Amino acid sequence: MSIKFEHVSYIYSPETPLEKKGLDNVSFKLQDGSFNAIIGHTGSGKSTLMQHFNALIRPTSGKIEIAGTTITPETTNKNLKELRRHVSLVFQFPEAQLFENTVIDDIAFGPKNFGYDNEKALASARFWLKKVGLPEEIGKRSPFELSGGQMRRVAIAGVMAYEPDILCLDEPAAGLDPEARKQMMALFSEYQKEGHTVILVTHNMDDVANYAENVLVMEHGKMIKQAAPRDIFKDRNWLQEHHLEEPKSSMFAAKLQNYQFAKLPLTIADLVKDIETNLKG
Ligand SMILES: Nc1ncnc2c1ncn2[C@@H]1O[C@H](COP(=O)(O)OP(=O)(O)OP(=O)(O)O)[C@@H](O)[C@H]1O
Ligand SMILES: [Mg+2]
């Protein structure tokens, strides 16, 4: 039951002066249980693509097969509950996904909506509140009193609490500090290792290198490349042509290739000091 996009295009505000192509003839397949990253410049179509996975928006042309559902331009909002139980999306601005009076009710909403009884939904909400690294007391508070980073974690917990098979995350770690980002990425990785499919939009190439096994590169609404991270990042010229960054380690390794030591380092301390002094930035 892999995920399949066939010639998917999407046009915003068609046949109006504001008409804008969001996706342009995108085709690909993703394997079940894989960790996928979607990268590309701002405005390249990443969020537009993400919103197709759970039919939040439907293709203007083309066809999607996902979790046993076929999505076409004719697909209506009816009968999508089953799809959304299997495929869930954390928005790029997940603060907008919160709406209940308390954090715990907010996280429990999804599980209840998808058929968990009250007790099981609350148990799942408490479990995921802890999993995203928030203390139990926060459960009683209003989600709107929280910091941006805390709201983001609540939104993530709310989507994970009914354990969708396919978890779509649109820049879920944006705005989190490095420690929190690491925690969240570890959580998604663990979720994938348990057998779920993860699809992650990110601008962070270190996260791509660390976690993804498959990368889709978007540009002007087109998917211009699909490959493993090693194949994406090995061609520095191609990356530069497409204004894409590379992981910090690759950048560092590239700099080291022509590196001249001031003097031969005899100790690790000397080695580190030389590199630190001469390779700043
Ligand atoms: N609601 C909308 N109405 C009209 N055009 C839109 C709308 N949303 C996005 N677009 C346009 O569609 C294109 C793709 O946008 P999208 O949000 O998918 O890009 P993105 O890759 O997610 O960018 P970012 O990295 O900034 O989040 C852009 O040119 C954008 O301006
Ligand atoms: Mg986006």
From TrEMBL:
Ranges for domain ABC transporter: 3-245
Record's keyword terms, sorted: ATP-binding, Cell membrane, Membrane, Nucleotide-binding, Translocase, Transport
EC number per UniProt: 7.-.-.-
Location relative to the cell: Cell membrane
PROSITE patterns listed in its UniProt record: ABC_TRANSPORTER_1, ABC_TRANSPORTER_2
Gene3D superfamilies: P-loop containing nucleotide triphosphate hydrolases
Pfam family, any one: ABC_tran
Bilayer topology annotation: Peripheral membrane protein
Keyword Oxidoreductase included in the entry's annotation: no
Family (UniProt): Belongs to the ABC transporter superfamily. Energy-coupling factor EcfA family.
Quaternary assembly: Forms a stable energy-coupling factor (ECF) transporter complex composed of 2 membrane-embedded substrate-binding proteins (S component), 2 ATP-binding proteins (A component) and 2 transmembrane proteins (T component).
Record function comment: ATP-binding (A) component of a common energy-coupling factor (ECF) ABC-transporter complex.
PANTHER family reported for this sequence: ENERGY-COUPLING FACTOR TRANSPORTER ATP-BINDING PROTEIN ECFA2, HEAVY METAL TRANSPORTER
Protein name: Energy-coupling factor transporter ATP-binding protein EcfA2
